[in-house]
């Protein structure tokens, strides 16, 4: 819309028509199931109609139920994730709070509670349907479906969008962990939200 | 533990024994299902073993799955709530983000979207199993089970513990809404956490 404020009269008219067309396109996209529906977000949404993807993590189905980049949340973000048997998150850490509620299945939380220069051998916590777990801020961890059926979890994080540092193994130094930001499920809409601000 | 640093030698010994006893009692309480287990909180907990109560709201069963006053969360808080048919939250507002995930049943979200000096007649949004809803910050709202079976929701809020302003009806001025803080389910542990700091 910046175009409207500069240029000659005729180019302003063209710019105005162009901008309005863009705006109409944007709003129709936003309300008709765009992957980045940050404006015109309905108050109530059917979770089964939300986009879902593995985002390159084998055996994962991720859905952002209420997100920062996708939906304009400022302080919390909610994910619904399903891990097939054997599927796991990367070994990773983040400086936000994270709470899981296990809806279905079972698995293991691997949590490195030591505070040296690398995560070290993790402690194993069995997780199960109707359990809740919290991950202490900045502790390296991994959630894995070590059971025989799908593991489904509802995850809440604070301070979205998430900034994740990933480790190749439990003995990689913290300083060598790689920042992945925006994370895979935020990539597409993060780019679009950046464009919006140009 | 302040007792240990004052008094004569013999009274110090008594005080030390007394303090250690208190401390042991405190830790055993914390790990064996105390209502305020903020210290020694296990990483994984069985939700079905958590305390639950109506907290004076007819037809409500509330459980704090991961909370600020109860469990030491700083940025997010998670509740599991079940509303019997006809049960409802008060009409209320709060300045934090709130996201619901409906696990079972159906109901209605009443949401006052106008921004005058009082909430006014609310818009009604049907909510249903597998839906998600977010409440815009500071909008007066009420969730009610208008169905025939239990309505079960998992609720995430930001910036806990929650500060709730309640309304007698939709036409009560915002300035007359009553602050209830700490909210009913935080009362017991809020008092204890205050005592801890004395």
Automatic annotation (TrEMBL), chains A, B:
- The positions making up the signal sequence are 1-33
- One MF term in the entry's GO annotations: auxin binding
Glycosylation sites recorded in the entry for this protein: 130
Instruction: Spell out the PANTHER family in the cross-references.
Output: AUXIN-BINDING PROTEIN 1
Q: What CDD domains does the record tag this protein with?
A: cupin_ABP1
Q: What disulfide bonds does the UniProt entry report for this chain?
A: 36-189
Does the record carry Metal-binding as a key word? yes
Q: Where in the cell is it found?
A: Endoplasmic reticulum lumen
Q: Which GO terms describe its biological process?
A: auxin-activated signaling pathway; cytokinesis by cell plate formation; positive regulation of cell division; positive regulation of cell size; positive regulation of DNA endoreduplication; unidimensional cell growth
Pfam families associated with the record: Auxin_BP (PF02041)
Specify the domain of life of the species encoding this protein.
Answer: Eukaryota
Instruction: Enumerate the residues binding Zn(2+).
Output: 92, 94, 98, 141
| GO terms for cellular component | endoplasmic reticulum lumen
The record's InterPro entries line, in alphabetical order, gives:
Auxin-bd, RmlC-like_jellyroll, RmlC_Cupin_sf
The name on file for this protein is Auxin-binding protein 1
Q: Which UniProt keywords apply?
A: Auxin signaling pathway, Disulfide bond, Endoplasmic reticulum, Glycoprotein, Metal-binding, Receptor, Signal, Zinc
């Amino acid at each position: 819309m910046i175009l409207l404020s500069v240029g000659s009269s005729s180019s302003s008219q063209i710019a105005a028509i162009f901008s309005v067309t863009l705006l109409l396109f944007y709003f129709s996209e936003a309300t008709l199931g765009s992957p980045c529906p940050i404006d015109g977000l309905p108050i109530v949404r059917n979770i089964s109609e939300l986009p879902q993807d593995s985002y390159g993590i084998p055996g994962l189905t991720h859905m952002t139920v209420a997100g920062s980049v996708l939906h304009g949340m400022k302080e919390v973000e909610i994910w619904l994730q399903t891990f097939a048997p054997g599927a796991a998150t990367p070994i990773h850490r983040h400086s936000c709070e994270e709470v899981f509620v296990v809806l279905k299945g079972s698995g293991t939380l691997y949590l490195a509670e030591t505070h040296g220069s690398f995560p070290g051998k993790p402690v194993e916590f069995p997780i199960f349907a109707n359990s809740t777990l919290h991950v202490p801020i900045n502790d390296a961890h991994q959630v894995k479906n070590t059971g025989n059926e799908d593991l489904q979890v509802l995850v809440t994080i604070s301070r979205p969008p998430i900034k994740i540092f990933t480790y190749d193994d439990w003995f990689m130094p913290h300083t060598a962990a790689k920042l992945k930001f925006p994370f895979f499920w935020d990539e597409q809409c993060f780019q679009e939200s950046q464009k919006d601000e140009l």
